[in-house]
Amino acid sequence: MKEEQVILVNEKDEPIGLMGKLEAHEKGLLHRAFSVFILNERNELLLQQRAAEKYHSPLLWANSCCSHQRDGESNIQAGQRRLEEEMGFSVPLKEVFSFIYKAPFDNGLTEHEFDHVMIGYFDGEPVINLEEVAAWKWMTIEAVREDMERNPEVYTAWFKIIFAQFYPYLEALKK
Predict the structure, then answer these.
(1) Which residue from 62, 88, 143, 163 puts its CA 20 to 30 A from 155's CA?
(2) CATH number, domain containing residue 20
(3) How distant is the alpha carbon of residue 132 from its chain centre?
(4) Which residues fall within 8 angstroms of residue 139, CB to CB, at 6 or more apart?
């Protein structure tokens, strides 16, 4: 199976080439990514626990889904594709902001991403892909924030960074 390619970008999110996902993470090169946050009617956030077989951050909790756009795919198309692949459902998504972050891992890999953050709404039960996701749960936004402070080691590095950026937006939704 051919390795998935990521879209290398500059700091303006302009594509500058393609590279294998693992090589881009080994070299810590800036590439396009997305993060999806799914909320329900009770304003709870859908979290996923990464599968044990993931090559980094196995069994850590993260946002509803995240991944990388494919060449020629819009941010929204990518988010909907991956949400269906990982969580077994599709909903309309809205991009709310984007930003650059860098997160090194203990295994020598680095996430250096121009991340497009999206939001969607869903009130059902996910049908998870066990190759990607070990478990899921709904948590209130405040409970996620409090648990992240008490137990930061159970969350992915990128989720902690993105949640800090997204928290003010989520708080504004509650009003």
Answers:
(1) 88
(2) 3.90.79.10
(3) 12
(4) 44, 45, 47, 147
Q: Residue 59 is part of which domain span?
A: 5-174
Task: List the beta bridge partners of residue 46.
Answer: 138
Say whether 65 is catalytic: no
Residue 107 phi/psi, 5-degree rounding, is -85, 10
User: Considering 113, 125, 142, 153, which one is annotated as catalytic?
Assistant: 113
Residue 66 among the catalytic residues: yes
Domains: count for the chain:
1
- Judge if pTM exceeds 0.85: yes
List all residues 6 or more positions away from 26 whose beta carbon is below 8 Å from its beta carbon: 108, 109, 110
Render pLDDT for 123-173 as a digit per residue (tens, 0 to 9): 999 999 999 999 999 999 999 999 999 999 999 988 999 999 888 877 776
